[in-house]
Structures are given as C-alpha cells and as structure tokens.
Amino acid sequence: MTNIFITVFAYVIDRVFGELTFVKHPVIFIGELISYFERRFYKDSIFRGVLLLAFVLSTTLVFSFLSVYLLHLLPTFLDIIFTSLIASMFIAHNMLRDAVAGVTTADDKHHAISMLVSRDTKDLSESDIYKATIETYGENLSDGVIAPTLFLLLFGLPGIVFYKTVNTLDSMVGYRNEKYENYGKASAILDDILNYFPSRLTALLIMFLGKQKNLFAFYEDGKKHDSPNAGHPITAMALVLGVKLGGDTSYFGKLKKKASFGTGRTTLTTDDVQKALNLL
Q: How buried is 6 (Cβ within 10 angstroms: 0-12 exposed, 13-18 middle, 19+ buried)?
C-alpha cells in the first residue's frame, strides 16, 4: 500500500510541478558517474562495459537504499512525502509533454525537434517534423513515464533508481557505433530487457485510451522496429491517430532504411500532435 501511495503522489507531483529546479537532478549525478568511469577506464571491450554497468548500478543503489533507510526513520507520513518527492524526479511526463507541445508552437520548429531526436532535422518538412515529434512522444512515454512508474510501484524507490540508471546508461553509451558497440552492449541489452514489458503496456494503454477494438493490433508492425521495444508504442500511436509513422530516415547524412508503422495518412499536422498529447 505504501508503494501505491508513493507512486500516485510522485506522478501527481511531476504532473503538477514538473522538474524540481531547487535541487540538482539525480539523473545528472548518474550521468556524471558514467562520464567519470569513462574518462578513466574506457576501453573498447564488452567486459569493460560490464564493469561500467556494475560500478554505476552499485553506486546508485547504495545511495537509494541508504535514502530509504534514513527516510524510514521519519514518521510514516513524512517518509511517504519525501520519498514521493525524490521519486517524482525520475518521472518525466510533464517535461515530455512540454517539450512535445513546444515543437508545435516554436518559431524555429527544426531547432525544437532537433532537441528531441537524433535524426537529421534541417531538411525535414513540417509534416515530417510532426511525425518525428509523435514518434519520440510514443517511445518516451514508455521509458520516461510508464516504465519508471511501474518500477516504482513494484519495487519502491530502489526500483525506479535502478531503472533510470540503466536507462541513462543506455542513452549515453548504448549506441551501435565504433566507440560504443562493445563498451555499451551490456547496458543496451539490460535496457532492452527492462523495457520489454513496459513498452508493450504503454502500447496497450494507448490503444485502450484511443478506443481501438483490437488492443493488440500494434504488435504486427511494432515488431518490425530495429529496437525490440520502441516500435510498439509508436505503432499504437499511428493506429490511434490514423497516420503512418516511421519510414526511411536520415542520420548523420546517411539515409537509413526503416520500417513503417500504421497505414493511415502520411501528411501530419499540429492537430495530430495535440491528439497524441490528449491521449494521456
């Protein structure tokens, strides 16, 4: 029951107040840990990447369990309130919504979308900008909102810290390029494992809230994505909005062949972005 209260309060705090700017964000500390290890011990090696994963996870988990121990010394009400405040910093729905909505109102939409995606953005049409916006919203609903909330509900503060640590590792070193292919492999694999169920739960929630008759219709296209997880919420968004997402995309000047998700309209507007935001 305590985890339920903490999860609800943490989510409400994030939705109402967003980022707590009066303290340093804990994800920044995690990022600094990752950078510290990389500066001193980086090697193009899977084993060295496993050491990175072990070092960062053990450090953050020690702090999270220590925090739980100290907070348990407080009266139960204060324990729940302070734990909820800390946990809310690992949930990013408010920030994600603002960032996505900001693309539609920005004077320079190309710059705005470049802050959210890794693809080349300078030559995107307005419709392609909105497509990229909806794709990143669908994908990040899973790893920025649903997954951390689920880990908080199931495992308390250490659970959400564990998830966000792995997710941050993946976002920093989980790339398939010359530098990180081996070094980031362990982090990327663990992140895929942790997101397996949350990504599909996110897709189901999108389909349910979008009043789709076949709640599992997202799976056929969703499994075509390079990622074992990202395609499912993206496809669910496409089906609910009646649009086609995905398709060939340019990264660092090179066109990459990518699957398409959904069979609807190919021209997207600000209304489509707003409908996506209104779902959740």
A: buried
Task: Quote the pTM value.
Answer: 0.93
49-52, long-range: CB < 8 A, 24+ apart = 49/173, 49/182, 49/183, 49/184, 49/185, 49/186, 49/187, 50/186, 52/169, 52/173, 52/183, 52/186, 52/187
Q: Is the dihedral of CA 42, 43, 44, 50 positive or negative?
A: negative
Q: What is the mean pLDDT of residues 112-134?
A: 88
- According to the model, what pLDDT value does residue 6 have? 96
User: Angle 92-146-207 (CA atoms, 0-180°, nearest 5)?
Assistant: 120
Query: Is the model's pLDDT at 44 over the cut of 90?
Result: yes
- Residue 249 host element (H or E): strand 249-251
Return the residue matching tokens 């794709």.
135
**Segments in the chain forming alpha helices (H):** 2-17, 26-41, 46-71, 76-88, 93-105, 109-114, 126-141, 147-173, 185-209, 219-222, 231-241, 270-279
Q: Phi and psi at residue 88, in whole multiples of 5°?
A: -60, -25
CA distance 138 to 89: 20
3-class state of residue 124 by DSSP: coil
Q: What is the pLDDT of residues 204-228, one digit of tens each?
A: 999 999 999 999 999 999 999 989 9
256: helix, coil or strand? Answer: strand
- % of the chain beyond a pLDDT of 70: 100
Q: How far apart are CA 52 and CA 199, in angstroms?
A: 25
CB atoms within 10 A of CB 189: 16
Which whole number is the average pLDDT over 77-98?
A: 93
* CA separation for the pair 147, 153 (Å, rounded): 10
> Which pLDDT score is estimated for 254?
77
